[in-house]
Write a sequence for this structure.
């Protein structure tokens, strides 16, 4: 049995994750930010391309948050997910 | 009306037969010693890794709402329908924050449902049953939405819809539903988890082809957007106002933002979403998925644009108008009129299977709620695991029957309202569940009363909304005017709920009203146990005054 302590992260990490997640939600929630037609991207008015582009941007922010909060108790392989864990979980 | 296209129909029936075989065969997948307990039937043994969980949650959360209801709203109202993109953009960062805590505490204490957690956290049967009943109630219109989606496809394919006999008209839908009920009954959550692979393959294939192929056939994106823009500015004869808006107007920003926020906060309160989360094997699987699930949100955004593509095709708009202006038919007609018939068949299959998978998971999750938090709580507390699984199997049938009532009783002008109505109800469990994951500050009875008032307020407000152009009708929309702004009723009700809960918590504490016992400990919310129920056995529950 493995016990992982997710709370062993520095306050700096938690602050960074909080800012990433809150700004993600704000960027989608604050309608006046994007309720406009220009500038266009190709044929797409701003209102449409902003929201479509926001989705992958938020995914990247969430992925960064995940990387920062990844449990650090097991073998460290910086930049790559721990292979032993993935093999087990991908099944 | 519509004629039957043999090629499309054969492909649709072929895929339906395939997923039916998979659904019944799923009983052998990851075979357990016995399926007859809720951990196996209802949660697949809590053994799903990152990959399966991604398909399961994606298959579970992106439903006929995505493929039929959202493009229908875009088709009719324009920019407003895009609130769903904003909603699905913000929902995963929100769940990223609290879903791992829910998974950990549920794993530690072997909770199967959100109401189990509330029972353990607050030591309150009343609050637990309130959460359970809300979950079951809110799930029914959501399942109903799946039926409306399937029905839209069947109508366009030429099955049912045109017959004068009510029984013949709805027979294909009822048959599809009965088959779904049968393999859900047998295989439990393994069936939709396995079918989700077929579903998502078809969905991604369908949307990639649609986005690459259809704009060229419709005169390009510039033409599609200019037709939409011109159409939304025309005056509606029923209301005397523009039919919609192409870019959200300042007056529509509150509705847009609150619909998105309310839907996002509500999504992971739904029992089927919680089921998808709890079926994961490890805590880390949850966060990894919250970062990977936006792939589906992007797909939803592209599907929403199908509403504008349908608007740009004269053939599609003529067909929708000829079928009682039923906007739910816009996407199926778009497929029928612009795709070769074999690929239209693939697109129909994607929509139908895309509705069957969530309908199965929703009914399983609601059945878990009934069994654990109503039946065992009030009728037979000593039910054996096998009896629990049997009760849940039967309850899953009743949930589907309840959904049929919503299909036939509520106006179907905008199927999205079925989901928004469910959202009004389910969001009222947010204080007990999500706030409860962080703090035990709220008094249990304050939460019960806040919930009850908000439920009544939300239901009455939704009842009072007429269908556009039909004064005196009911349940026609999900927004109401508050302080000069148009706001999603779920958000107003949640604010009322929170205000009452805070005020009464202070009052009850001052009066010394007994609060329940909290069986969880702070470490349970961050733990990553690999064995279910371990913490519950090792540590003594904390006592709260």
């Amino acid at each position: 049995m493995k016990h992982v302590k997710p709370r062993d992260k520095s306050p700096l990490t938690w602050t960074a994750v909080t800012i990433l997640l809150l700004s993600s939600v704000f960027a989608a929630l604050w309608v006046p930010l994007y309720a406009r037609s220009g500038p266009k991207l190709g044929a797409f008015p701003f209102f449409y391309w902003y929201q479509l582009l926001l989705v992958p941007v938020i995914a990247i922010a969430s992925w960064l948050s995940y990387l920062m909060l990844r449990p650090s108790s097991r073998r460290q392989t910086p930049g790559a997910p721990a292979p032993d864990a993935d093999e087990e979980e991908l099944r | 009306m519509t004629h039957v296209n043999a090629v499309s129909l054969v492909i649709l029936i072929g895929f339906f037969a395939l997923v039916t075989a998979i659904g019944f065969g799923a009983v052998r997948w990851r075979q357990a010693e016995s399926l007859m307990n809720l951990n196996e039937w209802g949660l697949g043994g809590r053994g799903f890794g990152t990959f399966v969980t991604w398909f399961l949650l994606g298959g579970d959360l992106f439903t006929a709402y995505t493929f039929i209801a959202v493009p229908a709203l875009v088709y009719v109202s324009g920019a407003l329908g895009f609130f769903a993109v904003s909603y699905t953009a913000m929902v995963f960062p929100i769940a990223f924050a609290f879903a791992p805590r829910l998974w950990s505490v549920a794993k530690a204490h072997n909770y199967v449902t959100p109401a189990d957690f509330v029972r353990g956290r607050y030591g309150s049967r009343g609050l637990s049953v309130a959460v359970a009943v809300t979950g079951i109630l809110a799930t029914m219109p959501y399942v109903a939405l799946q039926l409306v989606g399937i029905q839209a496809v069947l109508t366009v394919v030429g099955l049912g819809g045109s017959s004068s006999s009510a029984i013949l008209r709805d027979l294909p839908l009822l048959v599809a539903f009965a088959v779904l009920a049968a393999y859900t009954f047998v295989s439990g959550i393994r069936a939709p988890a396995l079918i989700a692979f077929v579903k998502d393959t078809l969905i991604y294939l369908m949307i990639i082809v649609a986005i690459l192929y259809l704009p060229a056939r419709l005169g390009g994106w510039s033409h599609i957007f200019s037709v939409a823009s011109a159409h939304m500015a025309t005056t509606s004869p029923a209301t005397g106002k523009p039919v919609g808006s192409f870019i959200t107007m300042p007056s529509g920003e509150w509705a847009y933002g609150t619909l998105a926020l309310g839907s996002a906060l509500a999504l992971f309160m739904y029992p089927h979403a919680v089921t998808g989360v709890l079926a994961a094997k490890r805590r880390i699987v949850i966060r990894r998925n919250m970062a990977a699930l936006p792939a589906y949100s992007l797909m939803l955004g592209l599907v929403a644009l199908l509403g504008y593509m349908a608007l740009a095709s004269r053939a599609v708009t003529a067909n929708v108008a000829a079928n009682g202006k039923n906007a739910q038919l816009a996407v199926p007609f778009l497929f029928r009129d612009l795709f070769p018939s074999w690929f239209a068949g693939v697109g129909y299959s994607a929509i139908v299977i895309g509705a069957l998978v969530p309908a199965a998971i929703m009914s399983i999750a609601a059945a878990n709620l009934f069994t654990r938090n109503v039946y065992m709580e009030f009728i037979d507390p000593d039910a054996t695991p096998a009896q629990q699984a049997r009760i849940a199997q039967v309850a899953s049938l009743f949930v589907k029957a309840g959904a049929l009532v919503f299909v036939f009783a509520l106006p179907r002008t905008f199927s999205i309202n079925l989901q928004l109505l469910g959202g009004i109800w389910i969001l009222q469990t947010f204080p007990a569940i999500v706030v409860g994951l962080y703090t035990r500050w709220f008094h249990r009875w304050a939460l019960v009363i806040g919930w009850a008032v908000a439920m009544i307020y939300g239901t009455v407000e939704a009842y009072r909304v007429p269908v556009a152009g039909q004064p005196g009708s009911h349940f026609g929309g999900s927004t109401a005017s508050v302080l000069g702004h148009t706001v999603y009723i779920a958000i107003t009700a949640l604010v009322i709920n929170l205000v009452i809960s805070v005020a009464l918590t202070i009052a009850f504490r001052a009066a010394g009203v007994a609060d329940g016992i909290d069986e969880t400990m702070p470490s349970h919310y961050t733990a990553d146990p690999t064995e279910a129920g371990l913490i519950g056995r090792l540590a003594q529950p904390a006592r709260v005054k």
